[in-house]
């Protein structure tokens, strides 16, 4: 019996993982299929290819994340402009935001600041937080992305603020545990991956949330650690 239980638990975990991966991949896939149909009808625009490439890269990253989860996170740091990184990420999320009736505001007080990070992985973290914010606002709303430097502590602070459903204290305490999800189609793997990536950068994540009011996520990254 014990063995059977373990087997069925394994199967249900695999099922959950599969459902989650399918869910994550469906959005970029739908947009790629739509664009290739347009191109077949000769409504070709050069920017379609850029979008297709970006969506394919996103799917590639997702699959890589899945197969690498549980293994130690390795990061490849490059020097990059934090403001550019935020702009590129917002650009990637624009279609998604429109679909969710969400407005994204960026408040960046450090326009030309450079940060030494794994750009791909931090982008993935920001995308995960923004998706959670969208999903917390089923009727749409505003997301504010704020970027500041804490010169005293040599840190970057990135804040992602939504006006969504918020969380209870108990929910906040569970954040980052693998498979913790309150969503019907949720997977509960987004935040564990984010925590891994931020810890690999020697940074930290803080949540302030109130049920029914909204959530603020603070990402803290050390400024110079080459
Ligand atoms: P998933 O999105 O698949 O559920 P995550 O690891 O991304 O998995 O998030 C885990 C849980 O944390 C969510 O199911 C939700 O309950 C909660 N959560 C995360 N971000 C937010 C947010 N911005 N607002 C409300 N709840 C959130
Ligand atoms: Mg999520």
Describe this entry's structure for a reader.
The longest helix has 39 residues. The chain has six helices and seven strands; from the N terminus they run H-H-E-H-E-E-H-E-E-H-H-E-E. Helix 1 packs antiparallel against helix 2 and helix 3 runs parallel beside helix 4. The strands form two sheets. Strands 2-4-5-7-6 form a five-stranded mixed beta sheet, with helices on one face. It has a two-stranded antiparallel sheet with strand order 1-3. With 226 residues, it is α+β, with helices and mostly antiparallel strands. It starts with a helix and ends with a strand. The site of adenosine-5'-diphosphate has 22 residues, from helix 4 and helix 6. GO terms for molecular function: ATP binding; phosphorelay sensor kinase activity. Keywords: ATP-binding, Kinase, Nucleotide-binding, Phosphoprotein, Transferase, Two-component regulatory system. This is histidine kinase.
């Amino acid at each position: 019996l014990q063995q059977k239980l373990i087997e069925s638990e394994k199967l249900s975990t695999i099922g959950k993982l599969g459902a989650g991966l399918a869910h994550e991949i469906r959005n970029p896939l739908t947009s790629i299929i739509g664009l290739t149909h347009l191109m077949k009808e000769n409504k070709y625009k050069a920017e379609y290819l850029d979008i297709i490439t970006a969506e394919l890269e996103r799917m590639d990253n997702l699959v890589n994340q899945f197969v690498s989860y549980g293994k130690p996170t390795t990061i490849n740091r490059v020097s990059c402009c934090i403001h550019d990184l935020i702009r590129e990420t917002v650009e990637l999320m624009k279609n998604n935001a429109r679909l969710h009736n969400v407005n994204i505001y960026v408040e960046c007080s450090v326009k030309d600041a450079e940060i030494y990070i794994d750009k791909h992985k931090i982008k993935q973290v920001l995308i995960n937080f923004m998706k959670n914010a969208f999903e917390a606002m089923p009727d749409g709303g505003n997301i504010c992305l704020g970027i500041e430097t804490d010169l005293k502590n040599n840190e970057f602070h990135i804040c992602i603020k939504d006006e969504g459903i918020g969380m209870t204290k108990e929910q906040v305490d569970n954040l980052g545990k693998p498979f913790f999800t309150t969503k019907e189609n949720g997977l509960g793997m987004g935040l564990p991956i984010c925590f891994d990536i931020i810890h690999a950068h020697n940074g930290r994540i803080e949540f302030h949330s109130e049920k029914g009011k909204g959530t603020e996520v603070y990402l803290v990254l050390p400024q110079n650690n080459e």
